[in-house]
Amino acid sequence: MSQNPFDFSDFGPARQPGGTPPPAFGGAPAPHQGPPAASGGFDPWANQPPSAQSPARPNPESAFGDPGAFGQSGGQQDVFGLPGSGVAAGGALTTSGPPMIWFVIALGLAIAGFVIALAGALAGGLLATALVGWLLAGPVAIGALATYTRIDTRRRTETIYSAPAWAANLYWAVLAVCLVGIALGAWQIALWAGRL
Where is this region: Disordered (predicted)? Predict the structure, then answer.
């Protein structure tokens, strides 16, 4: 007689000699007769006393930490174990943009340097006006433009950054005014040095 390949009765709870077979799936349990049967080995906590079951049985909800801690900030950690985000719960996000004040400063210095150098050239090539115009349009104005670039680069790393479309064009316009002022002042300085 061939054995049924789907018979898994050997893996269930052990039968008592002369006892009743275990109930079918979903059926009512058979009345217990005699000493308790040995465990089948599938539930290690099944035959433990109640005092031993509570500390040994793991809590499935605690596998990922405290569920109430998710979505909170202020000392809490996010789901990746990192500190809470810089945005407080319910706080408004701030939009950062380029520091336009440094654009205005750089443009004003470049225009002032160009005007002073041009006035000196029209007055006959004065050395003092040429030096002042060259310094304002050169190192001072370009230094202000470099400060703009440094602050703008740092602001680009923030959460929300928004810059107007004309900001890049204005940057090159300020740089062009700086170069014209530098060239005009340098040309007058070269003329003065040639007359020595």
Answer: 1-76
User: What is the biggest distance separating any 2 CA atoms in the chain, rounded to whole angstroms?
Assistant: 129
Total domains present in the chain: 1
Q: How far apart are CA 55 and CA 77, in angstroms?
A: 27
CA dist 194 to 114, 128, 141, 184, 188, Å?
22, 16, 27, 15, 10
Return the higher-pLDDT residue of 43 and 105. Answer: 105
Residue range of the domain that includes 189 = 96-194
The two three-digit tokens of residue 130, written as one number:
């040429």
Contact 148, 170 (CB under 8 A): no
Which residue in 28, 38, 3, 185 sits closest to 110, CA to CA? 185
Q: Residue 158 in 3-state DSSP?
A: coil
Check the CA dihedral 181-183-186-188 and report its sign. Answer: negative
Q: How many whole angstroms separate alpha carbon 84 and alpha carbon 42?
A: 41
Q: How high is the pLDDT of residue 13?
A: 62
Query: Rounded to two decimals, what is the model's pTM?
Result: 0.49
Residue 122 falls inside a structural domain: yes
Q: Which pLDDT tens digit goes with each residue over 35-72?
A: 555 545 556 555 666 554 455 555 555 555 555 544 44
Tell me if 174 is assigned to some domain: yes
